[in-house]
Amino acid sequence: MNSLHSVSVAIVSTHCHPIRKLLSFYKAKTKTKPHNLICSFRHPSNRLLVSALKRDSPDDEGPEKLPLRQNAASFDSGWLPAFPHVLVASMSNFIFGYHIGVMNGPIVSIARELGFEGNTFIEGLVVSIFIAGAFIGSISSGSLVDKLGCRLTFQIDSIPLILGAIISAQAHSLNEIIGGRFLVGLGIGVNTVLVPIYISEVAPTKYRGALGSLCQIGTCLGIITSLILGIPSENDLHWWRTMLYIASIPGILVAIGMQFTVDSPRWLCKAGRINDAKTVICELWGASEVDSAIEEFQSVSKDDSGDSDSRWSEILEKPHSRVAFIGGALFVLQQFAGINGVLYFSSLTFQEVGVESSALASLFVGLTNFAGALCALYLIDREGRQKLLIGSYLGMAISMFLVSSAIICPLDERLSNNLSILGTIMYIFSFAIGAGPVTGIIISELSSTRTRGKIMGFSFSTHWVCNFVVGLFFLELVEKFGVAPIYASFGAVSLSAATFSYYFIVETKGRSLEEIERSLNVKA
């Protein structure tokens, strides 16, 4: 655990020097000495506290008064204790992003070497078998989390991720590459559910949204990394094997890193390990939070049955059914708002304005996605989840209508191409600010401790089904109706998603998970 906190110690030390200089200056000017200096990182305040300066004599007023401003000498470090644990978990999203992009270029080389070049159905199967595995992984993750907790589940889940990557890298037949991709998808399906659950349960309330946004940032970095590493595949027909071998490394790091992280205090309390839960709370949130946190955990579980494992049928009962409906609906709207279709056509859109390299175009899209995720990290705990979702979907709708208008009513070819590029960038940026990161975070926050695993598993399995359907029919619909009508329909769905978010989403900013759960129980 000490190794995980080394970054925290380094950052802390750099913030003590300005305070010392300020005190020395004050002493020289007033001929006084400081009575006390406290550098405290105990929660909940987690601020560097500088005490009032006491004069040697009440008659000595000094030539001038220099009031110390607390804000100038403060460093809000409440997120630091949880950050290393969240960072390790977010590496799972890096794996997800890497596997999204790893087939982007090399699929042609794979098809040529394994003997199915030109067979678009088999090429699509190699790419999409990943989704079938992810669906099974997501639907099974709820039971695993209930029984084993997030930490052990992460480690077990690393096995299919590592084996799948190695089997894919060593594949010499179609069955081997399909089997490897299925195993990877299985692991990804579990991880996509695990990461938001784990982060929401270990992060301090004040920073839960920002730390949760690391999911999206991890995914973006994974995509960017795979695109950069995929550049040599254009000249080296066997480079895809190296890329898939590399894909096993993050899985190994997650398995090892989780050995040094903590389990969710909420799961520990639900499992009856109260003392372990207190230890984790003290480490992550501060000793002053222990008693109140344990009391809150127990207050929402006192009406539960003796069995700590929830049943799938419980998500059909109030108030859980409402959250399950919101979770499923958000992912249906997210996928049918067209993110995968827009990403698919983004390379073609860039080619029309002179960007011939598909890898370069995809990299530019990835950087736009990453920039939006950084903005989400800054805004989510300031503006709230609901505002970000509404603003995100409105931006996506405007972007799609802009692109559709540029295609349908081209006043000038150059102008139309530029508007298409602008609309595509706006769409991806808008998605990354809200619809991408907030969806998984808020479903986890709205779910009760007892049914969180099941509701998240159901919601993400819905995501994978919709992802598959959009991928299956998108190109066929484009060929039949054209790009403009399909993009306009994406805009209409985005408007519907903004409306849904306005009427159905409960704001969770600044509220503990137990407070949210109690409020939903009252409404039910």
Automatic annotation (TrEMBL):
Pfam family, one: Sugar_tr
GO molecular function: hexose transmembrane transporter activity
Top-level taxon: Eukaryota
Membrane topology: Multi-pass membrane protein
Subcellular locations according to the entry: Membrane
InterPro entries cross-referenced by the UniProt entry: GLUT, MFS_dom, MFS_sugar_transport-like, MFS_trans_sf, Sugar/inositol_transpt, Sugar_transporter_CS
UniProt keywords, alphabetically: Membrane, Transmembrane, Transmembrane helix, Transport
The keyword NADP is assigned to this record: no
Annotated SUPFAM superfamilies: MFS general substrate transporter
Keyword Transport: yes
Transmembrane segments: 79-100, 120-140, 177-199, 211-231, 243-262, 323-347, 359-381, 388-408, 420-443, 455-474, 486-505
Annotated Major facilitator superfamily (MFS) profile domain residues: 85-509
Gene Ontology cellular component terms for the protein in this record: membrane
Family: Belongs to the major facilitator superfamily. Sugar transporter (TC 2.A.1.1) family.
PANTHER family in the cross-refs: PLASTIDIC GLUCOSE TRANSPORTER 1-RELATED, SOLUTE CARRIER FAMILY 2
The protein, known as: Major facilitator superfamily (MFS) profile domain-containing protein
Lineage: Eukaryota, Viridiplantae, Streptophyta, Embryophyta, Tracheophyta
